[in-house]
């Protein structure tokens, strides 16, 4: 293996490790959907920080996580799991809903600054 190839490989591994370790430090929040129900109905998340939402569809029909305020949507088949990474939110409340079950009340992400105690 030539020096440029080894150097490129080494840099790729170092860069990937740094990105991977950063992603491992992101807070994770779980939202469950089940045939017209969203649990929990509100989720407190950190403001101004990247985080991950794990979306579980425990129901027997497809669901669609949708939020016009977050400009995000994700369709999940019955019994599937997926995720959405949110880079950062200003403090405030952000509604989301299941677009495939319009009678389901919307749920809320509440972005708060961490308290300095």
Structural summary, described in words:
The protein is α+β, with helices and mostly antiparallel strands and 117 residues long. It has one domain (27-112): Immunoglobulin-like (Sandwich). Helices cover 19% and strands 42% of the residues. Strands 3-9-8-5-6 form a five-stranded mixed β-sheet, with no helix packed on it. Strands 2-1-4-7 form a four-stranded mixed β-sheet, with no helix packed on it. A hairpin with a 4-residue loop joins strand 5 and strand 6. The N and C termini lie far apart (54 Å). Mean pLDDT is 87; it is low at 18-22. Residues 1-23 form the signal peptide. Residues 10-111 form the EfeO-type cupredoxin-like domain. Pfam families: Cupredoxin_1 (PF13473).
> How many structurally independent domains?
1
Secondary structural class: alpha+beta
Which strand order do you get reading across the main beta sheet?
3-9-8-5-6
> What string, H for helix and E for strand, traces the elements in order?
HEEEEEEEEE
User: Residue ranges: pLDDT <50 for 5 or more in a row?
Assistant: 18-22
Give the integer mean of the pLDDT values: 87
Instruction: Please report the first level of CATH classification, the CATH class.
Output: Mainly Beta
User: Based on the structure given, which CATH architecture is correct?
Assistant: Sandwich
User: Total strand count, please?
Assistant: 9
Q: Between the first and last Cα atoms, what is the distance in angstroms? A: 54 Å
Please state the CA-atom Rg, rounded to the nearest Å.
18 Å
Largest sheet: 5 strands, mixed
Proportion of beta-strand residues: 35-45%
**CATH domain topology:** Immunoglobulin-like
Within CATH, the superfamily carries the name Cupredoxins -  blue copper proteins
* General form: globular
User: What's the total helix number?
Assistant: 1
- Residues in helices, as a percent range: 10-25%
